[in-house]
Amino acid sequence: SRAAGRAEVRRSYEALFRAFPDLAPTSSSEAYGDDVFVTWGTVHGTMDGPWLGFEPTHREFTCAFVNVVPFHNGRMQGEQLFFDLPELCRGIGLAVDDVVRQAAAAQAAT
After folding, report:
1. How many CB atoms lie within 10 A of CB 78?
2. pLDDT, position 36
3. How far is CA 101 from the centre of its chain?
4. What is the C-alpha separation between 57 and 46, in angstroms, rounded?
5. Which residues of 81-101 are buried (b: 16+ CB within 10 A; e: fewer)?
């Protein structure tokens, strides 16, 4: 997912934590430069809320993630999260193609 600006990042996190209220990342490592911060590791959660129009499955997942945060003049400009979507979908019992289709529809609606 990609979010730019404070309001969009907040909405993105609110939706993610409604769907996966126990979402917990474990950072393996991080890197940074003058205008970017990157962290990666694994993330675990349970789909206990609706997500992208899907009803809760109450199933758990653990998958790899990478989080890229650009900065300008020392201020966060947004965030881009990359998840191992096939692994996440396997864990929560949803088809990857269905999730991709719903995510595209949600993105188009914004």
Report:
1. 17
2. 96
3. 16
4. 8
5. bebbeeebbebbebeeeebee
Residue with tokens 């430069």: 33
**pLDDT, tens digit, for every residue of 25-37?**
999 999 999 999 9
How many other C-beta atoms are found inside a 10 Å radius of the C-beta of residue 29? 8
Residue with token string 């609606």: 109
Parallel/antiparallel/unpaired status of strands 36-46 and 24-32: antiparallel
Give the separation between CA 70 and CA 77, rounded to whole angstroms: 6
Contact indicator for 89, 96 with CB cutoff of 8 Å: yes
Do you know the residue count of the chain?
110
